[in-house]
C-alpha cells in the first residue's frame, strides 16, 4: 500500500474507532428507562452499536499502534521510536491523569457536581496523587495508554517473536490458552499482547519500504472488500460461539477479527482525504468521557422515561463530542500551541 493511502486509512480507521469508543461509553437506556430498558428500541440499538460492534474499537487501536510501530521498524530505529513515544504517550499520559485527578478533586468537593460524579470526596494526600498520575486511578480510560507504553518498551521482544514463524505460532497459542483459562498474572493484558503480536506479524509479512511523495488513485478494490466482509462474518460466528460457551477466547478473537475486517474494508473504499478534526482522535478519546456523562445525566433529569430522547442523545453524542473537540483543538493550536502539543502528544 502506498504510504499516502496507508496514512489516510489509519486516520479514517482511528476516527471510526473513536466514534465507537464514545458510543460504548454513551449507553443511557437504563439511566433513562430503568428496569426493562434492554427490551426498548433504545436499549436494542445501544446493545448492537455500543456493546457489540463498539467492542472492536480497543483491539483496533492496539492493532493500529502495532502496525505503525513495526511498519518501518529496524533495530536502529528503536531509540527514535521510543523517544517519539515519550512525547506521544508518556507525557500526555501523565498530564491527562493529573488533569482528571484535579477535576475529580474539585467536582467531589462541590455538592452539585458531587451528585453527578457519584463519588465520595477525593483526598489530596501524596499517595493518592501518585496513584492518580502514574496508575491512572481517576482516569480509567488511560489503561489503554498504560498498556501501549508497556508494549512499546517490549517491542524488540515482540519483533524477535514475529521474525520466527514457529515461535510466533507458539506465542499465539500460549496467549490463547492464557485467555481461555483467564490467567493474567502480569499488568500487561494478554488480549492486548495478542492484538499487538498478530498485527506486528501481519505488518512484517506485508510491509514494504514507504516512498515519500507517492501518490495514489482512489478506486474501489473488490478483493479487499470481499475479504473484509468474510472477516466480518467470521467475527459474527465467533461472537455467537462466545455467547454459547461463555468463554473469553472467542470474544477476544471476534473483536480482533472484526477490527481486521474493518481495516481491509476501509482499504477497499475510495475514501476522500480526512478532514482536520479526524486527526484529533487522541484528544477526542482523552476528553470525551466527562461531557458524555454530564450530558446524559443532566438530560435524564429533564427527560426521565423518554426512550426516544435517550436514543437520539445516544446517537448524536459522538458527533457532538467531535464538534466540541474540534473547536477546542482549533483554539489550542492557534492560542496555546505548546500546551496543545503536550496534551495531544504532538499529533
Bin the strand percentage. under 5%
Sheet having the most strands: none
Helix/sheet category: mainly alpha
Give me the strand/helix succession. HHHHHHHHHHHHHHHHH
Global Rg: 21 Å
Question: What number is the mean pLDDT?
Answer: 90
- Give a count of the beta strands, DSSP E runs of length 2 or more: 0
The N- to C-terminal Cα distance equals: 23 Å
Shape assignment = globular
Helix content: over 70%
Number of contiguous helices: 17
Low-confidence stretches are: none
Can you describe this structure?
This protein has helices at 3-24, 29-33, 41-52, 57-70, 78-107, 111-117, 126-134, 143-153, 155-162, 165-180, 190-206, 222-245, 248-268, 281-287, 289-303, 307-335, 337-344. The protein is mainly alpha-helical and 347 residues long. Helix 16 packs across helix 17 (337-344). The two termini are 23 Å apart.
What's the structural blueprint in terms of helices and strands?
Blueprint: H1 3-24, H2 29-33, H3 41-52, H4 57-70, H5 78-107, H6 111-117, H7 126-134, H8 143-153, H9 155-162, H10 165-180, H11 190-206, H12 222-245, H13 248-268, H14 281-287, H15 289-303, H16 307-335, H17 337-344
Summarize the structure.
It contains 17 helices and no strands. The protein has helices spanning 3-24, 29-33, 41-52, 57-70, 78-107, 111-117, 126-134, 143-153, 155-162, 165-180, 190-206, 222-245, 248-268, 281-287, 289-303, 307-335, 337-344.
List keywords for this structure.
mainly alpha; 347 residues; 17 helices; globular
